[in-house]
Specification:
alpha+beta, eight-stranded mixed sheet, two-stranded antiparallel ribbon, 5 helices, about 25% helix
Length: about 280
């Protein structure tokens, strides 16, 4: 009797758990005139984002030969699998059927989210980038850059809104999410290359800062971003932040944890994005 109840509880947790691998709120802002926008640092605003090409990028130290390129609709399955593994958990045969079913539910929701996100490419102010083997091999990493509404006094993003309110408390700001690298390819410079490319694109759009959010308990990620020049702006109160998954038990357990908002100023020229430029 207990086993069916445990399975039912686990399935409900997976079914109703929020999927935050990619930003699931509003669409990224449309590419429109920004004459009335409010800048935190009086930076100019670009009217049109650059179009991306597909020049390969070889990470330093000769460790890997990967290419950064814009994501395509055909990448949806691979992206969903990468994000599910990185942000929720992997599944192997010894994990049993409960975790397999839970992961299947999460994967289905992440896949729908990724497909929706890919539909905005070229139509909204956003770039979803992937790192793949330069010879045309599988995906090794990804990062999502999108412009969203930012609440200046509260120092937080309003991801469920896509129109600039009349109040002078809001502006548009570039936001990084879904920085993920396949487990066997971590600590090889891929995440750093993806993040730097997102910074270069944001700067080419006319922004002078880049913001992101990270779990307050993800010490490895916080150290990674700190080494890259990101500083903590604020932390949310407990219970309103990021989602984490405990995979140590018989089934996945989802919980909400605090998160930090981090910022990096883009004051120095980074050069044009390696994935393309305006034509």
């Amino acid at each position: 009797m207990l086993a069916p109840l445990a399975l039912l509880c686990a399935l409900l947790c997976a079914l109703f758990a929020p999927t935050e691998a990619l930003v699931a709120g509003s669409a990224p802002r449309a590419v429109i005139s920004r004459a009335s926008s409010l800048s935190l640092n009086a930076s100019p605003f670009a009217l049109e984002p650059p179009r991306l090409g597909r020049q390969p990028l070889t990470p330093g130290s000769g460790r890997l030969n990967v290419a950064l390129r814009p994501a395509k609709q055909s990448d949806a399955l691979a992206l969903a699998n990468l994000c599910t593994d990185a942000f929720y958990g992997e599944h192997t045969l010894p994990d049993g059927p409960i975790k397999f079913i839970q992961r299947s539910f999460v994967f289905a929701k992440v896949l729908a989210q990724v497909s929706r996100r890919l539909s905005f490419e070229g139509k909204r102010e956003c770039r979803l980038l992937v790192a793949a083997d330069a010879r045309g091999g599988p995906l090794r990493g990804c990062v999502d850059l999108a412009v969203h509404l930012y609440n200046i006094p509260e120092q937080k993003f309003e991801l469920t809104k896509d129109e600039l309110p009349s109040q002078k408390d809001f502006c548009w700001r570039p936001y990084v999410a879904s920085l993920a690298v396949e487990r066997n390819y971590r600590r090889k410079g891929i995440a750093r290359k993806l993040l730097r490319e997102a910074e270069a694109i944001a700067q080419s759009w006319g922004y002078r800062e880049l913001l992101l959010e990270v779990s307050a308990f993800n010490n490895a990620a916080i150290k990674f971003y700190s080494r890259g020049g990101y500083k903590v702006l604020r932390s949310d109160v407990a219970g309103t932040g990021a989602e984490e998954v405990d995979t140590s038990g018989l089934w996945w357990t989802f919980s909400t944890v605090p998160k930090y908002v981090l910022r990096k100023g883009l004051y120095f020229p980074l050069g044009p994005p390696v994935t393309g430029k305006d034509e």
